[in-house]
Amino acid sequence: MTRSLTFPLVAMLLGYFILSMAWQWRTDYWLLEDSQPGVAVLTNKYWSGHGIFEYEYVVDQKHYTGRSRRNSEDERYRNAGVGGKSVVYISASHPWLSSLNKPQIVGAGWPVVLVALLIEVLFLITIVNPNSKWALKDSVRKQNQEVEQDTGTNATKGRHTS
After folding, report:
1. CA separation (Å) from 115 to 12, 40, 110?
2. Hey, how many other C-beta atoms are within 10 angstroms of the C-beta on 116?
3. What is the DSSP letter of 2?
4. pLDDT on residue 162
5. Residues with Cβ < 8 Å from 32, sequence gap 6 or more?
6. Which residues are CB-neighbours of 36 under 8 A, at least 6 positions away?
7. Which long-range contacts (CB under 8 A, 24 or more apart) does 57-65 make?
8. pTM of the predicted model, to two decimals?
9. Is residue 88 a contact partner of residue 99, using CB atoms and an 8 Å limit?
10. Short-list 42, 63, 40, 64, CA closest to 54
């Protein structure tokens, strides 16, 4: 894959990771702020594995869906499978925000997100201005710069000898 495709692809993947973490932190905030317990029915094991399930729940006769890791803290729900019931924590002010586990803190994993954000900025600088001193260096660009320097040096030498 060429650099012209690699850098934007990596930038998009990092951006997706950063935005998904921000969304999770928003959900965690509201669940810590005003969550109410409810009952969810596990509807599907999510394709990514890792104990993640899709579920449905009802608030004020309105149906909602969510996706979360299975509740591992409460033994009653630890082994719940598709079709089983589990406690779900639902934001009272934002009922579309929910989780099968009550979050402990907001911002879990922030050091990883900070590093990802810094790398994302470097990729964006490289995409927008590849010749910036902050741009990521790659072997192709480095070779091009060496060729330009050699050409410039030879041209300069030629002028001095004339």
Report:
1. 15, 36, 9
2. 17
3. -
4. 46
5. 102, 103, 105, 106
6. 89, 90, 91, 92
7. 57/88, 57/90, 57/98, 59/90, 59/95, 60/95, 62/95, 64/90, 64/95, 64/96, 64/98
8. 0.73
9. yes
10. 42
